[in-house]
Every structure is written in C-alpha cells, then in structure tokens.
Amino acid sequence: MTSQGSAYSRFQRALATGNIDVVEAAAAELPTIGLDDALAILVLLAQTGDPRFERAAARWVGRLLTETPTGLSDARFALALVERLPSCRDALHGLARRR
Q1: pLDDT by residue for the chain (99 residues), tens digit each?
Q2: What phi and psi, each to the nearest 5 degrees, are found at residue 2?
Q3: How far is residue 7's CA from residue 16's CA, in Å, rounded to a whole number?
C-alpha cells in the first residue's frame, strides 16, 4: 500500500472532489465497483449535467435489477427515481441495499 492508501480509499477521496475525471481515474484502479459506489458516480454525473448520465443511469438500473431481488414495481420506481437524481439518492440507495 502506498502512502496515499488503498485504491478504494483513493476512490472515496476522488468522489469527495466532485471531479468526474478524477473519479474515473480512481475507479479504473478498482477490481470491481459495487452498486452503491456506482450510484455515487451516477449522482455525480447527474449533479454535473454530464451527457453520459442517461446511459449510465440505464446501466445502473439494469444492475439493480440483476443484483437485487427487485420486482417490476420496484423497477418502475427505480426508473422514476433515477430520473430525479440527485435528489432521490437515498431512496435508490435503499433499493440497492436489498440483498
């Protein structure tokens, strides 16, 4: 481990900067990105008005559907919430934590 910490701690610090380029570089060092961390990146894309947001949002909802026991009504709810990011982050986080 370097003096800057683990790859995951660098990723967390990158998220705190709010700079998507720094976040992407730090995320590239991780072996995997969990659903919660992917949501944090998605929120950042929404906050900055990044043009990649819509595609990333669709991928995140797809991951939610495959990685959690989410039914159709929750899927519709997730789609509605993701369109309202960043204000609905906590509700999406709750859906993502169902395992």
Answers
A1: 444 679 999 999 999 999 999 999 999 999 999 999 999 999 999 999 999 999 999 999 999 999 999 889 999 999 999 999 999 999 999 999 876
A2: -85, 175
A3: 14
User: For residue 7, which amino acid is it?
Assistant: A
> DSSP letters of 32-81?
---HHHHHHHHHHHHHHT-TTHHHHHHHHHHHHHHHS---HHHHHHHHHH
Torsion angle in degrees (nearest 10) through CA of 96, 23, 46, 58:
-50
Q: CA-based Rg of the chain, rounded to a whole angstrom?
A: 14
Structure tokens at 58: 């669709």
pTM: 0.90
Q: What residue has token string 């934590």?
A: 97
Whether the Cβ atoms of residue 50 and residue 20 lie closer than 8 Å to each other: yes
List phi, psi (to 5°) of 13: -65, -35
